[in-house]
Write a structure and sequence with these properties.
The chain is of the alpha/beta class. Helix content is 55%, strand content 10%. It folds into 3 domains: 18-216, 3-Layer(aba) Sandwich (Rossmann fold); 222-289; 301-370, Winged helix-like DNA-binding domain superfamily/Winged helix DNA-binding domain (Arc Repressor Mutant, subunit A, Orthogonal Bundle). Bound molecules: adenosine-5'-diphosphate (ADP) and magnesium ion (MG).
């Protein structure tokens, strides 16, 4: 039975749509252009990055994927970088299991060969490690290892904005000074917080200003999702009308995570009730599953009264927020800026809307009715 993914990143046959983005990103990377990918949480950044890396993989191109979000301390960062680069020669596991002993590392002939060219790797075995130096060397390893083997490298730093939690400014300066010299590597940096990414890459005084092409990731084409839904549901012998699926996709607007979650819930509902949920039942089920997440998101928003007021207006009025709030005493442009920058709302042809369709629906049905 096919697996359904609502949560972990998806690749290969489970990856839906985004053909244009993949083509564009791939071409840019091939030209040596660095990329910045910005989208709110659960929009499919990790999936897209992994899919691009996997499609670009060929004997001439090495790849590395580093998830900065999952790196708790500065010491782990050079380990992860080195490991991911070594993975291209299938040396990642042996490095991970032997890195505490120089002797053990050198016992493996292939790892030994790599170490002969990149002696810094032995530094991981020292009890008094110099993590900063290891980091400097490992960043250059991203470029020099492929150079040594006449290859190119595509290296992704996922949730790069989180780098500031390690040793902020200093690491960022180091990255910039190293990476700008790299000739064999192209980089993808992805991040969820527009404000953080913008202060790193977009603003005039940003450390990586004009260093990378910025791509704001949107939703996935609805038609692609409907085709995918039909194919997946067929595996479970579930029949759904196109109109019903269209209604669901109109609700999720092609939001990758919620669309997948809806699909999963249809399958679960069928297993339990031997029929499709009607649209209302499905929305209710989505709210049950996402209760904690939605409440937490709302809690974060509620910190600012101004933002709450603006969000209410966005949910209700969409394109008329300015006139709606004209005499409300709140600073509309400031609220819009702050909510756009933290990824809560975005501008569309129809005006502003929440980037999270379920949160929007929850506000409409739960918060609005109480006022
Ligand atoms: N291209 C895609 N096709 C199908 N589902 C996707 C796609 N991208 C993301 N998803 C869905 O969204 C969820 C979150 O994706 P992920 O890549 O982890 O997002 P992010 O890294 O932006 O938080 C995945 O578990 C999957 O269900
Ligand atoms: Mg991610």
């Amino acid at each position: 039975m096919a697996q359904l993914y609502a949560g972990p990143p998806v690749t290969g046959l489970n990856f839906v749509g985004r053909e244009k983005e993949i083509k564009y990103i791939t071409e840019l990377l091939k030209l040596g252009q660095n990329i910045v990918l910005i989208a709110p949480r659960r929009y499919g950044k990790t999936s897209l990055v992994l899919e691009v890396l996997s499609r670009m993989k060929n004997p001439e191109i090495y790849s590395a994927y580093i998830d900065v979000f999952s790196i708790p301390t500065l010491e782990i960062l050079p380990v992860q970088i080195t490991r991911e680069v070594l993975k291209n020669h299938l040396l990642d596991s042996i490095f991970a299991s032997t890195k505490n002993s120089a002797l053990a590392m050198l016992k493996n002939l292939n790892l030994k060969a790599a170490i002969e060219d990149f002696e810094y790797i032995l530094g991981f075995s020292e009890t008094q490690k110099n993590s900063w130096e290891l980091l400097e060397k490992s960043i250059d390893f991203i470029d020099q290892f492929p150079a040594k083997h006449q290859k190119r490298m595509i290296c992704a730093f996922d949730e790069f904005g989180d780098i500031s939690k390690l040793d902020g400014d200093k690491i960022i300066k180091l990255f910039r000074s190293k990476i700008q010299m790299h000739k064999n590597a192209s980089y993808i940096f992805s991040g969820s917080y527009e404000s953080v990414m913008s202060s790193l890459f977009i603003e005039k005084n940003a450390p990586f200003f004009r260093f990378a092409r910025v791509i704001n990731l949107g939703n996935i084409e609805k038609e692609k999702f409907i085709q995918f839904f039909q194919a997946q549901l067929k595996n479970y012998q579930i029949e759904c009308q196109n109109e019903y699926l269209t209604e669901i996709l109109n609700f999720t607007k092609g939001h990758p995570y919620y669309s997948q979650l809806a699909l999963q819930e249809i399958v679960i509902f069928n297993a339990l009730n031997k029929r499709n949920p009607d649209f209302g039942e499905l929305l209710e089920q989505l709210l049950v599953v996402e209760k904690n997440y939605i409440e937490k998101s709302w809690e974060e928003i509620s910190v600012s009264k101004e933002n709450v007021r603006l969000i209410m207006s966005v949910v209700q009025m969409r394109n008329k927020v300015y006139s709606d709030l004209k005499n409300s005493g709140i600073n509309v442009s400031r609220a819009i800026k702050s909510l756009t920058q933290n990824g809560t709302i975005s501008k569309t042809e129809r005006g502003y809307e929440l980037t999270d369709p379920l949160l929007s629906y929850w506000i409409e049905t739960n918060v609005m009715k109480n006022i």
